[in-house]
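Structure representation:
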Amino acid sequence: MRDGAIRAAAPLVESQIQPASLDLRLGPKAYRVRASFLPGPSRSVADMLSQLKSDEIELGGDGAVLERGCFYVIPLLEDLALPEGVSGAANPKSSTGRLDIFTRLIADRAERFDLVERGYRGPLYAEVSPRSFSVRARAGAKLNQLRFRRHDPDAPLKTSFALSDEALAGVHAQAALVDGPLNLRDGVVLRVDLSEPLAAGVVGYRAQKHTDVIDLDKIGLYRVEDFWDSLPVRPDKRLILDPGDFYILASRERIQIPADLAAEMAPMDAAIGEFRVHYAGFFDPGFGRSTQGGPGARAVLEVRSREVPFILEDGQAIGRLVYEPMLQVPEALYGEAGLSNYQGQGLKLSKHFEAR
């Protein structure tokens, strides 16, 4: 920020800065579009919007309702002038994923979502599509976050920064990454817990199809039963995922992210089932660390089956945590600075719902 690599149309605030990422804010206008798009190597997002936008929506003041099932492109308040050796990668924030708001970052001349090329100079946009609930959004709302990667000039084409399984085994031997056996497969494998009540006697929640609008600025206001169907423990400890339905579940393992690492949940692994897990899958350094210093939080899983019904068994592998090293340990870890809504979590819905 001081060097001008991160710029903003409104003053940046300290609460945007997370241990390993920067929260991005919606600008004052949203554009409804017919479908998702990427600009490609020769066009800007503004060029595409001039052809594709069907409506212009004001997000100032009391904001506007973003309708379920519709696609919007929203210019962000932040833009970038990155050094040549720095790139960016984005994820939806935890609350965004738990509300089933499909959010991806778009940059000018981009050929991939959620990636900002090295040395990028230009504006940023969020593609936003509420999938389960219509939401009221205002300018300044934070739906996604951006982290930065510094590239080694001696390896300019390197694209993977993930630690190997061998390295993760060494980390785990020094400080446990999970509270049970370590299962490695290109990252730490997590399993779903369907065997014991995790919150208010349930093992998960399924989003209802017809609900009221959720105001993104209202915290702890909404009743769970008005938006979610509770899923009790079944005698066979199974759950049948219905195609298109959205579920909130939790991992069997408790996890922690070491101070010098960050982690991302692989969004889908075709080898473990025809479903997608964890739309907002980024974990800052310090996440899950208990007061005793061990793994203390479950990974909350945002799950949607694809084309066919799928039987999920208790203990089934459901996702992988992929770890990357930090350049240095952050001055403040997740849970130590500001409000951390999900530190020490079990099965937990987004912060907008009454606590259970």
Observations:
- DSSP finds three helices and 24 strands in the chain.
- Residues 87 and 118 are 4 Å apart (CA to CA).
